[in-house]
Amino acid sequence: MTDLHDSAAAGVHTPAAAPWSIRMRDVNVRYPNGVVALKDVSLNIEAGEMVSVVGLSGSGKSSLIRTINGLVPISSGTLEVGGRHLETARGRELRQLRGEIGMIFQGFNLARRASVLNNVLVGRLAHTPTWRTLLGLYRADDKQIAYEALNSVGILAKAYDRASTLSGGQQQRVAIARALAQQPKLVLADEPVASLDPPTAHGVMRDLRRINQDLGITVLTNLHLLDLARTYGTRLIGLRAGEVVYDGPAATASDAVFETIYGRSIQYEDVLG
Ligand SMILES: Nc1ncnc2c1ncn2[C@@H]1O[C@H](COP(=O)(O)OP(=O)(O)OP(=O)(O)O)[C@@H](O)[C@H]1O
Questions:
Q1: Where is the ABC transporter domain (predicted)?
Q2: pTM of the model as a whole
Q3: Whose Cα sits closest to atom 4 in ligand 1?
Q4: CA–CA separation, 128 vs 273, rounded Å?
Q5: Could you tell me where the beta strands, DSSP code E, fall in 11-55?
Q6: Tell me, what's the pLDDT at 134?
Q7: Is the pLDDT of residue 37 over 70?
Q8: How many whole angstroms from 136 Cα to the centroid of ligand 1?
Q9: What is the position in ligand 1's atom list of the atom closest to the CA of 239?
């Protein structure tokens, strides 16, 4: 196999044709139990941005991500993702939309007993006819895309290993490869490094940054650690009790900005190091 790190023509290495923007206007999200997770959130995230969303536990970060991919309905306001209105999207339209959004979770969400390759091929499902999926017949092209995705995060050699035998950092890379195999227009990462040690966490964040910089894909990452948010985001959005309390450049956000977002002084555990 050729070195796909340098291959511009290969499937997952081709810049996203038209990365997606996100437009939220006065969005409120209220869960059935009455908890208001997002309050009057208005945000314009442009195609190709690398956004860190920061806030304490319970501030609404996961709700924001689950709202953007249509898992949580908005209670009021308007939400456009990739030009599609989510407040009216249903069924098939919603599934198609999710097929274009790569999701990365803290807990990796892999099929642990399946091979690494089969986990990555899941990223091709939205592009695969149902009958092929049911028969486990992936096209050669799909396999090629999966191999390329694994190569681009440096774990191609693990393709035939069972996912459960990999380290946490390697499993998160499998999840990133699965997202890449979708050839996504948008990647949403929910606390992707919260269960990883510091060097591994930086490695995974560098992979996400590369997806953004090399492929131009819009990336939105929920983080609770201020140094990661500053280092890897170009834009910082601070959430506190469901409200946007900061929206500006990440690199120059002062400690005072983070104290506003957290609603308290900075503590040891707010920094990965
Ligand atoms: N499915 C749900 N039903 C009811 N309330 C929910 C639900 N999911 C989240 N919440 C509540 O909504 C608020 C925001 O939670 P959310 O998980 O979005 O915050 P977060 O910043 O991602 O925190 P964490 O990192 O702890 O998940 C919290 O008060 C939480 O208890």
A1: 22-266
A2: 0.91
A3: 31
A4: 42
A5: 22-30, 36-45, 50-54
A6: 60
A7: yes
A8: 36
A9: 21
How far does the centroid of ligand 1 lie from the alpha carbon of residue 220, in Å?
Answer: 18
Residues with CB under 6 A from ligand 1: 31, 33, 35, 37, 55, 57-63
Q: Tell me: the pLDDT tens digits for 128-140?
A: 656 556 666 678 8
Distance from the alpha carbon of residue 227 to the mean position of ligand 1, in angstroms: 23
* φ/ψ bin of 148: left (φ > 0), alpha (ψ from -120 to 50), beta (otherwise): alpha
Phi, psi of 249 (to 5 degrees): -60, 145
Residue 90 CB neighbours (<10 A): 9
CATH of 49-70+98-265, one of 3.30.70.20, 3.40.50.300, 3.30.70.270, 3.40.30.10: 3.40.50.300
Give the mean pLDDT of 143-153. Answer: 94
Predicted confidence at residue 150, as pLDDT, reads 96
For the cut 90, the answer to whether the pLDDT of residue 28 exceeds it is yes
Q: For residue range 117-127, what is the model confidence (pLDDT) as tens digits?
A: 999 998 888 77
What is the DSSP secondary-structure string of 54-101? E--TTSSHHHHHHHHTTSS--SEEEEEETTEETTT--HHHHHHHHHTE
Cα separation of 110 and 99, whole Å?
A: 17
Q: What's the gap in Å between 31 CA and the centre of ligand 1?
A: 9
In this predicted structure, what is the pLDDT of residue 5? 39
Identify the pLDDT of residue 7.
36
Domain residue spans of the chain: 49-70+98-265
Which atom of ligand 1 approaches the CA of 35 most closely?
5
